[in-house]
Write a structure and sequence with these properties.
CATH superfamily of the largest domain: Jelly Rolls
Mean pLDDT: 84
Largest sheet: 5 strands, antiparallel
Order of helices and strands: EEEEEEEHEHHHHHHHH
Number of strands: 8
Number of helices: 9
Helix content: 40-55%
CATH topology of the largest domain: Jelly Rolls
Structural class: alpha+beta
Length: 283
Amino acid sequence: MYCTTVGSTFIAAGAGYPANPSDHPPKYLFRWDLGRIFDEYALLYITRGKGTFKTEGERTYRVGPGSMILLFPEIWHWYAPDQNSGWDENWVGFKGDYADRLVSSGFFSPMEPVLDIGLHDFVLQSFHQIFDCARAEQPGCQQVLGAKIYGLLADSSRLSRHHDPISEDERLVERAKFLLADNITEQMDIGWLSRSLGIGYSRFRTMFKNHTGLSPYQYFLNLKMGLAKQLLEQGNYSIKEISHMLSFDDPYYFSHLFKKKTGLAPSRWTPIEGAGELPEQVS
């Protein structure tokens, strides 16, 4: 199983779709207004907004935050966000015999192309890890990407089949974790986070810590340090560049915090060596 394309797009309310058609490789456009047929698989994760997905047999689905759309080879499809909402989408395309076997064994089916998996920070982080790995294109990249894509497929299957009832507090904490992951490269105003959830900061902080064992700020720092480790392992960025990418104003403070969280200075966190080449281009 190997990766063919990755990406993410923010579509504002009232904006056209696709956002930048000229940026898409020709095979991915194919008269968007009439739908498309791929020769590969793809996963499309909607994290904001609403829209419509259509596929063979005139089947139409309403999709929104937490929808995972599965695209199958040689099967017609069409999708777009609502004009009044737009949406945020993350996608990854892939091919391979193993993907074919998952479908032939019934693990996934073209008859169930939309999975309601919900908003989860670890799913979004998986997409971010795929984006970072594809960007770096280091030796062994396709093996890593294949494993991460399989992880996404497994999580999607599991989450779509298990909808255990959760409390309102658990729902708010999951939403908060997702927002933190979605803004991992930004400076986060935790007060804004609690306001966006419609609860007071004091209650939010207590609730979050009860469920995660960490304050929202410490949880956010841990997310940042996790991404910093991945970027350092890629070996393509300097410590100063990574500090800037993660919105730390002072590289020395970033280095101090990294060592405090991991036990090692960033300069001692060495890149991972791999073996293998990308069999296809990543767009």
